[in-house]
Design a protein that fits this description.
Layout (H helix, E strand, L loop, with lengths): L2 H20 L3 H9 L5 H7 L1 H11 L8 H32 L2 H19 L11 H18 L3 H10 L4 H27 L4 H25 L4 H29 L7
Helix pairs in contact: 1-2, 1-10, 2-3, 3-9, 4-9, 4-10, 5-7, 5-9, 6-8, 6-11, 7-8, 7-9, 8-9
Length: 261
């Protein structure tokens, strides 16, 4: 592997560590790293398999329940959020193929930053996890996630506003991520089977480094208080929001057409 590829793997490991800490971040950060060397559609494709493995590991975040017990419990209580994110992901992957990514990034960054600033107020926005709110946020998170690999910000905004525990947030978010990744895998499978041997090596390397990173992050997360967990998530969201705005500026300078040719 080249030096640049080793740097990519190390950055993906850092992204996985942060994912283990906060329950999100790996898809967005790893996609951002890979998209500097590959087209966005290929970058998204390369992280699908590692993401699925990481998300499955994160479902074990609750030491009181087994993997299957956690899946059954959270599917029963949060199925509207998961189902709507599935539908949104289908639409989002289609957007990836025909809509200018710059406008999606602009929307993403703007909403994230407004949300983080709101959460720093003495009386921030709060939401109750009822069916209508889950459907609305699930659709929005799915569309953005399918198109840009950035489902997490909208999802985390909703879950934090619902005043859920850090364990609930981690498991619910990763269940949604699994749904999104399965949709991406289905629709981007033609790209996946055409990757060359060098890209296959990158895929294997990302998977190994990501598993190590998320394991370390999970160990650290168990020592975090709920308050520290919230501020960690808000900090990551702010960074991702600024990054999305920066990327949108560059993309729109290159082409400001709403639709791809």
């Amino acid at each position: 592997m080249t030096q640049a590829e080793w740097i990519v793997l190390c950055l993906c490991a850092v992204a996985a560590l942060l994912h283990g800490l906060s329950g999100f971040g790996f898809p967005m950060m790893s996609t951002a790293v890979l998209s500097s060397q590959y087209p966005l559609s290929l970058a998204v494709t390369l992280v699908i398999f590692p993401c699925l493995l990481l998300n499955l590991l994160m479902l074990n975040a609750d030491p009181r329940h087994s993997l299957l017990q956690s899946i059954r419990y959270y599917l029963k209580h949060y199925w509207p959020l998961i189902l709507s994110s599935l539908i949104g992901s289908l639409l989002g992957v289609k957007l990836l193929l025909w809509l200018n990514e710059g406008y999606l990034k602009l929307l993403l960054g703007t909403v994230i930053i407004f949300y983080v600033l709101d959460q720093l107020r003495s009386k921030p926005f709060q939401s109750n996890p009822h069916i209508l709110s889950m459907v609305c946020f699930g659709l929005l998170a799915g569309v953005i996630g399918g198109a840009t690999n950035a489902m997490a910000p909208f999802l985390m905004m909703y879950l934090l506003s619902s005043q859920l525990s850090k364990t609930d947030i981690v498991i619910i978010s990763n269940l949604n991520f699994i749904v999104s990744k399965l949709i991406q895998l289905l629709l981007l499978f033609p790209i996946l089977i055409q990757i060359n041997p060098q890209q296959q090596s990158i895929l294997i390397g990302i998977t190994i480094f990501a598993l190590i990173g998320v394991w370390i992050g999970g160990k650290i997360r168990h020592r975090l208080s709920q308050r520290h967990f919230k501020f960690l998530v808000l900090g990551l969201l702010m960074v991702l929001g600024i990054q999305a705005l920066w990327q949108s500026t560059a993309l729109l300078q290159h082409s400001n057409h709403l639709f791809l040719n």
